[in-house]
Amino acid sequence: MDELTEYIASLDGSARDAVEHVRARALALVPDAEEGLSYGMAALRYRGSPLISAQVTAKHIGLYPFSPAAIEALAPDLVGFSTSKGTVRFTPEQPLPDDVLDRLILLRRDEIDAMRTR
Fold first, then answer.
1. DSSP-based three-state secondary structure for 93
2. CB of 71 within 8 A of CB of 85?
3. Angle at 69 between CA 92 and CA 74, to 5 degrees
4. Residue 115 CB neighbours (<10 A)
5. How distant is the alpha carbon of residue 2 from its chain centre?
6. pLDDT digit string (tens) for 80-110?
């Protein structure tokens, strides 16, 4: 299944590039991640759990790490971005810095690994 690849192909321009960038960074950091669905969204999944998704809306791109704890842990680095319990919002014009995106992905990966080793 190539849900995320198909979703990205349906997008245009800078929004497509921004979501593809998230996918590419996540796969570089977590090469075992697989495309799938999580909570009705095209996403990358790792060890059977949702890892990350990015969805385009009319005003922003929502980044979903499926982890309120990961967002909370990076709160100081997310100043200037709109966040909620499970979402970080950004735009192609103001993307999430790669180092912050990478840490968010790795925090979520580590959470999943910890869940699977219990």
1. coil
2. yes
3. 50
4. 11
5. 16
6. 999 999 999 999 999 999 999 999 999 999 9
Q: Which amino acid is at 28?
A: A
Name residues whose C-beta falls within 8 Å of residue 82's C-beta, 6 or more positions apart in sequence: 60, 88, 89
Residue (of 54, 58, 56) closest to 43 by Cα position: 54
SS3 23: helix
Hey, which CATH number is domain 3-116, 3.30.750.24, 3.90.1150.200, 3.40.50.1460, 1.10.3720.10?
3.90.1150.200
Give pTM, 2 decimals. 0.94
The structure tokens listed for 91 are: 């735009």
How far does Cα 21 stand from its chain's mean position? 10
Length reported for the chain: 118
Kindly list the distances between the CA atom of residue 74 and the CA atoms of 60, 68, 99, in Å, as whole numbers in the listed order.
20, 10, 11
| Residue appearing with tokens 């090469």 | 31
**48: which 2 tokens?**
């059977």
